[in-house]
C-alpha cells in the first residue's frame, strides 16, 4: 500500500537545476536508469534523501558512496553531482530545494531551524547516515505539495516546520551525545593519568599536551564531571594518599614529599583546609588510637 502511494507521487526526472518556485520545491524520483548530470551548484539549499541505487555523491573534491537512508545537505554555491556505479539498480531519491530567503524567514522565527544547515555551510559537513526516520515526513510533504486536499497550503507550512526541525534536532542530539561520550572518555583518561602520576609534578599544561586538547577544555570537562577543579582533585588525592602512608611510617616530613607535595607550607595549608586540624595534630590523634602490639 505504501509503495503504491509512493509510486503515485513519483515525478518524471528533469535535468533543470534552477528553481521556479518562490519558497521550495520537492520531488520524488524513481528511475529505472541513471541520468547523469554535470557538476553544478545552486543559489538555494538542496536536501537530498537517498532511498535506493548504487550512487557516489561528489561534493567539492570529495566523493561519498551513499547507502539507503543517507541524507545530504548542500548549501548554496557548493559544487556537486551524483555518479552511478551500476545502472541496473532502480535509482530512488527525494530532492528538496529551499530558497535562501525562505530558509532565512524560518531562522528569523527560531534559530532551532539552522543547526544542520550552519554545519553544512560553515563546517563543510554534508552527509548524514541513518536518516530513514524522516522518509515519511518527506513523502508527506510531497503528497501535500502535489495534492489538492482541503487545507494543503496551511498544512505544508506545518509539515516543513516539522521536517526541518526534526532534521536539526536529530543532528544536534547526535552531536551532543557524541560530545558527551568523548568528554566522558577524556575525563576517565585524565583520572587514570592523575592517579598513575600522583606522586609526580602534574600541571594542567602537562595534561593538555598528553591529551592534545586545550587547558580550557580540560578545566571545563573536569569541573562538569567532578564539581571541582583539576588542582583541587589532585590535592585531595594526595592528601588521602598521605593519610594512608602516615599510618604505615608515622613520619610527616618524608611522607608529604613522597605524596607529591613540593613544600611543607603548601602541604600544611591544604591539610588544614581539608581536615580542620594540622598534620601534626592528626598524627597525634592517629598515634593515640593506633593499637599497640602486645609483648609476650
Overview of the molecule:
This protein is an alpha+beta fold and 296 residues long. It is built from 11 helices and 8 strands. It has helices spanning 2-8, 100-109, 115-123, 135-146, 152-196, 204-211, 215-226, 230-249, 252-258, 264-275, 279-289; strands at 24-31, 45-52, 55-59, 62-65, 71-74, 80-84, 91-98, 127-128. Strands 1-7-2-5-8 form a 5-stranded antiparallel β-sheet. The longest helix has 45 residues, at 152-196. It is elongated. The relative contact order is 0.08.
What is the element layout, followed by pairings?
Layout: H1 2-8, E1 24-31, E2 45-52, E3 55-59, E4 62-65, E5 71-74, E6 80-84, E7 91-98, H2 100-109, H3 115-123, E8 127-128, H4 135-146, H5 152-196, H6 204-211, H7 215-226, H8 230-249, H9 252-258, H10 264-275, H11 279-289
Antiparallel strand pairs: 1-7, 2-5, 2-7, 3-4, 3-6, 5-8
Helix pairs in contact: 4-5, 5-7, 8-9
Please provide a brief summary of the model.
The protein is α+β, with helices and mostly antiparallel strands and 296 residues long. It is 52% helix and 15% strand. Helix 4 (135-146) packs antiparallel against helix 5, helix 5 packs across helix 7 and helix 8 packs across helix 9 (252-258).
